[in-house]
Design brief:
With 158 residues, the chain is an alpha+beta fold. It is 34% helix and 15% strand.
């Protein structure tokens, strides 16, 4: 790996991916603007990110950039082409526990599920971890339950 990517970003006009990288041999920090061609608001961001990462001219610069980060940058570009604001695009990447996922389209739902899977894997404890404890028992304290009228009426021995 001769190049180490430090930061990635997006230019909206013309649509392009910006990579700030360091040349490991000379220790110089440089910026590379990679144009995103043949990409419209109807394009598949997964395929575009994969095509960009495997492109022979850009492969060395994007080698240590995760595929998911390139996909996010393409989603931001696509959202901008659809007329959505940058704030709206960035908000779609945040996990909100109060958000109703039933109201999302298939693409948005798949994006949220992918984020939840990443978060789960990051917080997951494996058997090989030093702080792994098998069969953890926790006491959550007693909560007082409210009595309901239907609880008192049905006294059939259940």
């Amino acid at each position: 790996m001769r190049f180490e990517a430090k930061r990635c970003g997006v230019h909206f006009s013309p649509p392009s991916i910006v990579v700030v990288y360091e040349d490991t041999e000379t220790k110089r920090v440089r910026k590379r603007v990679i144009p995103v061609r043949n990409f419209s608001k109807y394009s598949d961001y997964n395929m575009a990110a994969e095509r960009l990462k495997n492109h022979p001219r850009h492969r060395d610069y994007l080698e240590n950039v995760p595929q998911s980060q390139l996909e996010k940058l393409h989603i931001i570009l696509r959202d901008h082409m659809e007329g959505l604001s940058l704030e709206h695009s960035l908000a779609s990447f945040r996990l909100d526990p109060d958000e109703d996922l039933n109201k999302l389209d298939d693409d948005g739902l798949a994006r949220k599920k992918g984020q939840m899977d990443e978060l789960f894997e990051k917080n997951r404890r494996h058997k090989d971890d030093p702080d792994f404890v098998y069969d953890v028992e926790m006491d959550f304290g007693k909560t007082t339950q409210e009595k309901c009228s239907w609880d008192e009426e049905s006294d059939d021995g259940f």
